[in-house]
Automatic annotation (TrEMBL):
This is DNA-binding NarL/FixJ family response regulator. Coiled coil: none annotated. The keyword DNA-binding applies. InterPro entries: CheY-like_superfamily (IPR011006), EvgA-like (IPR051015), NreC/VraR/RcsB-like_REC (IPR058245), Sig_transdc_resp-reg_C-effctor (IPR016032), Sig_transdc_resp-reg_receiver (IPR001789), Tscrpt_reg_LuxR_C (IPR000792). SMART domains: HTH_LUXR, REC. PROSITE patterns: HTH_LUXR_1, HTH_LUXR_2, RESPONSE_REGULATORY. The keyword Transmembrane helix does not apply. Residues 10-126 form the Response regulatory domain. Pfam families: GerE (PF00196), Response_reg (PF00072).
Length: 232
C-alpha cells in the first residue's frame, strides 16, 4: 500500500489511451500539493486501481465509452464515498454534464483544460463543491441560463476583455501572451487594469466575478473558489 504524505492530495488517473494518462498525470504533477499515485489504467478498472492506490481524488477520461465509465464511477462512489471524481470529457453537451454529475462526478472539464483549472477542480471537488468547465453552459431544469456580462463603471477595452476571457480558462500570463500575440509584460499590465476596473482582489477573484455574472443561479462551485492557484 502506498504511504500518504501529509498535506498532499493523492490523485489517481484513469484513461483508456496511455498517452492521455501520461498527459493528465503530468498536469497533476504540475500542481503544487498534488501527486499522481497508483498505476494509471482504464476507467473500467476504477475500483480495483483505487483499492491499491487509495487516492483522495480520481481524474477520469469521459469519452466514447461514456456509459461504461459512468457505471465505473458509480461503483467507485459506492465503494469509496470519500473519493472525489473529476472528469475530463470530450462532450460539451449540458445533458451529458448533468448525467455525469448524477453519477457522482464532482468536476466536469473539457479536454482542452489547463493544468491550473484541473488542479482547481480537484481541490473544489475535495471541498464538496461542484465545478463545471466555464466553457460550458449548463442546463438547469430544462432551461439555459441567460448569459450576462460584467458592466464595470470603467469599461474594459477590447484587449482587456480578450485577456479576461483567457484568465477564465486558467491560462498563465505566458500562454495568454502567446495566444494573443502580445508580450508577457503587456499581459501583466492588462491584468492589473482588469483587476482595478472590476474591483477584484486578485485574478481568481476576477474570474469568480465573471462566472457569477455569466451563469446566474448556477451551482458551479468554481464561482466561490476565490483561493484558486494563481498563475504568473
Amino acid at each position: 500500500m502506498s504511504i500518504a504524505m501529509a498535506g498532499v492530495t493523492r490523485v489517481l488517473v484513469l484513461a483508456d489511451a496511455p498517452v492521455l494518462r501520461r498527459g493528465l498525470a503530468g498536469m497533476i504533477g504540475e500542481t503544487a500539493g498534488m501527486q499522481a499515485v497508483g498505476a494509471p489504467g482504464e476507467p473500467r478498472r476504477a475500483v480495483t486501481l483505487a483499492e491499491s492506490a487509495r487516492p483522495d481524488a480520481v481524474v477520469v477520461e469521459l469519452g466514447s465509452g461514456r456509459s461504461e465509465t459512468l457505471n465505473a464511477c458509480r461503483d467507485l462512489r459506492r465503494r469509496f464515498p470519500r473519493i472525489s471524481i473529476v472528469a475530463v470529457a470530450t462532450s460539451d453537451d449540458p445533458a451529458v454534464v448533468n448525467e455525469a454529475l448524477a453519477a457522482g462526478i464532482r468536476g466536469y472539464l473539457l479536454m482542452n483544460t489547463s493544468a491550473t483549472l484541473l488542479g482547481w477542480a480537484v481541490l473544489a471537488a475535495r471541498a464538496g463543491r461542484t465545478v463545471v468547465d466555464p466553457q460550458i453552459r449548463r442546463v438547469e431544469g430544462g432551461t439555459v441560463p441567460v448569459v450576462r456580462e460584467l458592466t464595470p463603471e470603467v469599461p474594459l477595452t477590447r484587449r482587456e476583455s480578450d485577456v479576461l476571457d483567457e484568465l477564465v480558462l486558467g491560462q498563465s500570463n505566458r500562454k495568454i501572451g502567446e495566444n494573443l500575440f502580445i508580450s508577457e509584460d503587456t499581459v501583466k499590465s492588462h491584468v492589473k487594469a482588469i483587476l482595478r476596473k472590476l474591483g477584484a482582489r486578485d485574478r481568481a477573484h476576477a474570474v469568480s466575478l465573471v462566472l457569477k455574472a455569466r451563469t446566474p443561479g448556477c451551482t458551479c462551485g468554481a464561482h466561490d473558489l476565490t483561493a484558486a492557484p494563481a498563475q504568473v
